[in-house]
Amino acid sequence: MTGPVERTFRVHGDTVSAYVRGGAETLVFLHGLGCAKESALGALREPRLDRFGLCAIDLPGHGASTVPDGRAVTVEYCAEVVDAVLAEVGGTVTLVGHSLGAAVGLVSGTRFRRFISVEGNLVPADCGTVSRRIAGQPLAGFRATGFADLLAELARPDADVPPEWVRWFAGCDPTAVHQTACSLVALTDSGRLLTHYLSLRNQTYVYGDSASRPEQALFALAGTRTRGIPRSGHFPMLDNTTRFYALIADLAESEED
Questions:
Q1: What mean pLDDT value characterizes the chain?
Q2: How many H-runs (helices) and E-runs (strands) does the chain carry?
Q3: Among candidates 235, 227, 231, which has minimal Cα distance to 159?
Q4: CA dihedral defined by 16, 22, 25, 26, rounded to 10 degrees?
Q5: With bands split at pLDDT 50, 70 and 90, how would you rate the model's confidence at 211?
């Protein structure tokens, strides 16, 4: 097993951090809102993925990636950043996009051999309470108190969210989080993401098969390929790491193009 190397890319003058491992075909992991590239490191514990390259990118204002000077961190801007990084990485790519990351992939200009949406935003209900709550606040208010208040709520023992997410969220840039959430809600509500996803030729929707399963998204995706991960919620890569990456390996090894 060869681990990834942390690399720094320069895109539009900004610093973009990514874990990169070379391979003929690369699995590109794009994280969700408030997450970081470390959410994909469980892929290293799945032996069947050893033959694939790996590229896990910190989106702008998340993890070790900086925010642009004078440009809003929209979903479209995140896609520009991802496209620039993948142009340097090169090769055939399969996308594994979680939540926000799947939305970024849908507006990306990169051609993905396979598109794996992990609880990705497709219908208005997918914005849940976090992204819509953030977008419903003015930027100044979110920066002043909203960001800290949200972190405090997520950190409560009864919040039932992965502690890793709370830690990653705390390291994000509040302005970038707010701008991204506003863009994500608007795009999701417009129906554009669902329309684009349904037009793809080789797509799979992966969801946490728990009480929080996204019924509205599954209804909209009737007739397409969907896969549930048992004993998991919105973060199947953290809640049931073994089953999640075994499924990713199944999909990546598929001969279907």
A1: 94
A2: 11, 8
A3: 235
A4: -30
A5: low
Q: Is the dihedral of CA 20, 119, 12, 173 positive or negative?
A: negative
**How many structural domains does the chain have?**
1
Confidence of residue 197 (pLDDT cuts 50, 70, 90): very high
Query: What residues form DSSP beta bridges with 18?
Result: 7, 57
What residues pair up with 92 in beta bridges, in sequence order?
25
Cα 201–chain centre separation? 20
Range of the domain at 180: 5-253
Strand (E) positions, 86-157? 92-98, 114-118
Q: What is the CATH number of the domain that holds 241?
A: 3.40.50.1820
pTM of the predicted model as reported, rounded to 2 decimal places: 0.96
- Number of CB atoms found within 10 A of residue 163's CB: 11
How is residue 59 annotated by DSSP?
A: P
